[in-house]
Amino acid sequence: MSESSQDSGFHTPWIDISVPLRNGMVCWPGDPPFEIERINSMAKGDSINLSGIRMGAHSGTHIDAPLHFIANGKSIDEIPFEAVIGRARVIEIDDPKSIKSRELRQHRIQRGERILFKTGNSRLVWKDSAFVEDFVYISKEAACSLADRRVLLIGVDYLSVGDYKRKGSGVHRILLEAGIWLIEGLDLSRVSPGKYDLICLPLKIADCEGAPARAVLKARGAVRARNP
After folding, report:
1. pLDDT tens, 99-111?
2. CB–CB of 212/57 below 8 Å?
3. Is 68 a catalytic residue?
4. Range of the structural domain that residue 171 is part of
């Protein structure tokens, strides 16, 4: 960083858009819950602190690989870095029920984009440790539209891209068969619509259909640093 940029009062901070993994957190109905247990504790006289973790592969913020819905699809350890590292666009969705193709038209989504959808989920559902059935999801028509545009990546701000009450309505398969990688479980509550740099790397688990991930965004363009 140059001296002028250091003195300018501007910086571009990274924003953590991951959901913390913790005991009692919400999970998809039927999935193994996240559980962390302190096995060794220095407070109890042990020489180290050591934790044991049990969870499903789709706990919290996670990435779905094609193998999740496609028998011979790629597993999470085969994810191409270009899918989850690079420029991304956060699009805010006004519809309180679902992401529909007619609302997407105004955003002129292009081939090869990484798109993160900010919906009412970010404002509401993460405040509740119980599973919320009426989350905003991607409609089947919108999924087909996104598949036709061949975007690289789609991210959503709850635990699934598809409608829970209609068992997803085939949305996962439509997107994954189009080669689109999926981030689910994002918290976009502190993020404004716009263009960002994205880094979202899943755990490298061999032959697995998904994995938890840490996702961060950085606005493209400097913003003035807030006074502490």
Report:
1. 999 999 999 999 9
2. yes
3. yes
4. 16-26+57-222
